[in-house]
């Protein structure tokens, strides 16, 4: 056992040389936490001269530590101290950059504890790279979240680089606190620690609202997110006025608004005015597909930004780029099979929404196709309910036209009530209510909500039991149903569409 006095000398020597080792109160808290958890394995990012690793090993008998340090001099010094203290069998030291380090080399995963104490600007990258190596009931401890009090008093920072660094720490803090997958406790000791534990992952319900008079019922059912269309929204047959949206957002903490058109230059002033108006309401997030929307919001407003193009997100690398751009969540393309959607989700940390029920978007045009056709063909029809039958096929689609152009939706509705267990890797299940009556929307949402509750709160057996009860009712209430593209190769191959129509439709 190493003597306490040696640690004091080690700490002093580090501070004299401006090597930022952890504060005494900080390491005391961590040791208490390790003991309370009976921790056996810990991964540390940022060893410096080995002070914190040795303190933890010396004070927690059964603990094995692996620690990564990229600086050569510090690595060599840490190695020497660990040898001198005869702690080599308890502490494994790696000399590498933790961001390029091959995690396969680690021996102790999954870990009880991950301790992140390296380059502060990279906290999120460290976190995302190593979080999967932490046990489900493990903990991540992050040091320096106060950054010498500067986070609370940014006006005191003169240096530009420090300012940028503080901004990055703040961004990490905000990101992790607002991330539903984790629970964060802030510990005001030393230079500010936080402990992060994994929340039980749940698939939540997001609803495209088509009638605000049932808002109360939806909230009672446990719908987590309400998505509304307003002026300048695309792909929605029901649009709310600004006053209505303000009233909805006052009642629903998770209100998202569709600002999801592709906008022309001349529309930008109106678009900016609209976003300014939303910023005065209690709106949590915006659905967008035009990057002009992201550009305008970024550094100006605090909306959560969901990238929701209808067809474009078909691989995880796109999603990772979006994440780097500050996008908070995304919707994966609906035209790819479920298997591929799940693979995408597994490779990205971005929260993903996926359609669970309702008509599916097929295509859209900025042009007014119905009006043009009516004019050219000298025909008149009820533009709210035009159904097109494709030539040489009995495949039917809704055509919907508004001031943003023309959208084509499937007539059949996608259903996934019996796939919720497979889909539970996703973050939000979206109920699309275009072409649904208010009653159909209520009843359908109720069934999904009950099945999700059973799955999330009780277990798979209870869910299967409920789902089997509900499925025949769902088929009665919401028809015609099909699997959309979940089982198909692609929408774009005629054989796939035909195969689906002949065998998959119910
Ligand atoms: C705050 S010090 C660590 C102090 C140490 N945990 C202690 O309390 O005794 C941060 C260390 O992280 C190292 N570091 C920074 N970025 C790193 C990276 N990407 N990979 C590995 N080490 C890194 C630095 O060289 C520095 O030694």
What does this structure look like?
This protein is an alpha/beta fold. It has 2 domains: 4-198, Vaccinia Virus protein VP39 (Rossmann fold); 204-504, Alpha-Beta Barrel (TIM Barrel), CATH 3.20.20.70. 38% of the residues lie in helices and 22% in strands. The strands form 2 sheets. It has an 8-stranded parallel beta barrel with strand order 8-9-10-11-12-13-14-18, surrounded by 4 helices. Strands 3-2-1-4-5-7-6 form a 7-stranded mixed sheet, with helices on both faces. The longest helix has 21 residues, at 438-458. The structure holds S-adenosylmethionine. S-adenosylmethionine is lined by residues 20-22, 45-48, 51-52, 68-71, 74, 97-99, 117-119. Pfam families: Methyltransf_3, Peptidase_U32. One of its GO terms (molecular function) is S-adenosylmethionine-dependent methyltransferase activity.
Write the layout of secondary structure elements.
Elements (H helix, E strand, L loop, with lengths): L3 H13 L7 H13 L4 E5 L5 H9 L4 E6 L2 H13 L6 E5 L15 E6 L6 H8 L3 E9 L17 H19 L3 E6 L5 E6 L5 E5 L6 H7 L3 E5 L12 H10 L3 E5 L8 H12 L5 E4 L2 H7 L6 E4 L8 H9 L4 E3 L6 H9 L5 E14 L3 H9 L8 E4 L6 E7 L2 E10 L5 H4 L4 E4 L6 H21 L1 H18 L3 E2 L11 H11 L2
Parallel strand pairs: 1-2, 1-4, 2-3, 4-5, 8-9, 8-18, 9-10, 10-11, 11-12, 12-13, 13-14, 14-18, 17-19
Antiparallel strand pairs: 5-7, 6-7, 14-17, 15-16, 16-17
The protein binds S-adenosylmethionine (SAM).
């Amino acid at each position: 056992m190493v003597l306490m006095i040696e640690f004091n000398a080690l700490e002093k020597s580090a501070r004299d040389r401006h090597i930022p080792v952890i504060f005494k109160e900080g390491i005391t808290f961590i040791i208490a936490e390790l003991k309370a958890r009976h921790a056996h394995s810990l991964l540390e990012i940022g060893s410096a001269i080995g002070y914190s690793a040795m303190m933890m090993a010396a004070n927690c008998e059964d603990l094995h530590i692996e620690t990564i340090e990229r600086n050569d001099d510090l690595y060599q010094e840490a190695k020497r101290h660990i040898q001198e203290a005869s702690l080599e069998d308890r502490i494994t030291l790696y000399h590498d950059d933790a961001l390029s380090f091959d995690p396969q080399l680690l021996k102790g995963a999954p870990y009880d504890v991950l301790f992140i104490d390296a380059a502060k600007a990279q906290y999120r990258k460290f976190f995302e790279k190593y979080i999967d190596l932490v046990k489900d009931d493990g903990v991540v401890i992050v040091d320096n979240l106060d950054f010498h009090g500067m986070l609370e008093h940014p006006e005191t920072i003169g240096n530009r680089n420090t300012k940028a660094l503080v901004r990055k720490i703040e961004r990490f803090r905000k990101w992790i606190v607002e991330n539903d997958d984790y629970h964060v406790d802030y510990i005001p000791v030393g230079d500010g620690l936080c402990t992060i534990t994994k929340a039980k992952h749940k698939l939540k319900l997001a609803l495209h609202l088509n009638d605000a008079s049932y808002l109360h019922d939806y909230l009672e059912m446990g719908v987590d997110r309400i998505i509304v269309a307003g002026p300048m929204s695309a792909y929605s047959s029901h649009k709310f006025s600004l006053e209505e949206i303000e009233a909805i957002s006052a009642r629903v903490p998770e209100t998202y608004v569709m600002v999801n058109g592709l906008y022309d230059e001349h529309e930008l002033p109106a678009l900016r005015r609209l976003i300014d108006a939303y910023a005065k309401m209690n709106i949590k997030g915006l659905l967008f597909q035009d990057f002009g929307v992201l550009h305008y919001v970024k550094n100006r407003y605090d909306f959560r930004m969901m990238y929701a193009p209808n067809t474009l997100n078909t691989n995880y690398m796109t999603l990772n780029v979006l994440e780097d751009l500050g996008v908070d969540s995304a919707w994966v393309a609906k035209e790819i099979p479920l298997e591929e959607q799940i693979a995408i989700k597994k490779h990205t940390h971005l929260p993903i929404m996926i359609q669970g029920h309702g008509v599916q978007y097929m295509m859209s045009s900025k042009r007014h196709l119905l009006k043009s056709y009516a004019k050219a063909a000298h025909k008149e029809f009820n533009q709210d309910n035009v159904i097109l039958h494709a030539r040489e096929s009995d495949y039917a689609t809704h055509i919907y036209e508004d001031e943003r152009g023309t959208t084509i939706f499937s007539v059949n509705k996608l259903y996934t009530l019996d796939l919720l267990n497979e889909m539970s890797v996703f973050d939000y299940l979206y109920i699309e209510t275009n072409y649904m009556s208010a009653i159909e929307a209520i009843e359908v949402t109720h069934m999904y909500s009950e099945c999700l509750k059973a799955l999330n709160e009780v277990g798979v057996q209870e869910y299967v039991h409920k789902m089997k009860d509900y499925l025949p009712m769902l088929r009665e209430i919401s028809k015609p149903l099909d699997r959309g593209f979940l089982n198909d190769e692609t929408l774009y191959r005629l054989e796939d569409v035909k195969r689906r129509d002949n065998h998959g439709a119910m």
